[in-house]
């Protein structure tokens, strides 16, 4: 029942419907009719359009293996239409505000710290201590190794707390040189906002892929000379294979700074401090990676409205190529304009 659905869930669903409508309305040619399953939950489901998919999943569909799980089709996040929160807003509006900051804040004037805000109860099932662990590694410790209250000088990392006034507008993250991405239950919708910054994205290896995550070219922290005793003396000058079997399917290569547009740190954040300190000591490397990120996602237009509607159209074409539709169902349909005003999928029978 509609009344049993939360307001935010209804907003997310409605935003996605508007995105699809926008893609159809602006398409230069007709798109195939189809029936689809739209999943707006954080957890992706096989055989649906979902906001993300696990790195271990496949986009391939084998018609000769009906017993296999259907693939998950990543769809653009609802924020491409609207994210009605005071400190966020739609992606297109945020891109405009971010552009203003980037034009007026060169790398040399950005805050030389790593920044994050978020809630600790949204954590991946595979890394339940992920965000809480992040908050631990940025705190000073006493001689016995116990966490003290003081935050380390390289960090501006805090849990969001109501009434504490520690929120940041989404564009203000771009004032920092290093921006932390910490996955939520699965993905985090803030990723494309952070990728619009000319800042270094720092994240554990990403486990849930949104529709543009595959464009990330990570430099893995293990390839950096993070200590004086490291056997590695310089960052790699060319791509090197990623030996980690958990991440090398989607991210098979660690890129050199000249090509990388993000840095993947250890999954438990243990080398986050060493990574940030290395970047502080080598600002030219950080600046190059930061510039690569903004040039990739903004400069090449991947976060634009045009790219979004183009993706939706290809998604519809790909889905319809194997979806089996009972064409009698067309008789049960309702015009989009009527649905969006009434919230009903069929007329009342009187």
Automatic annotation (TrEMBL):
Pfam families: Glyco_transf_90. InterPro entries: CAP10 (IPR006598), O-Glucosyltr/Glycosyltrsf_90 (IPR051091). SMART domains: CAP10 (SM00672). It comes from Scytalidium lignicola (Hyphomycete). PANTHER family: GLYCOSYL TRANSFERASE CAP10 DOMAIN-CONTAINING PROTEIN, KDEL LYS-ASP-GLU-LEU CONTAINING - RELATED. This is Glycosyl transferase CAP10 domain-containing protein. Residues 30-319 form the Glycosyl transferase CAP10 domain. It comes from the Eukaryota.
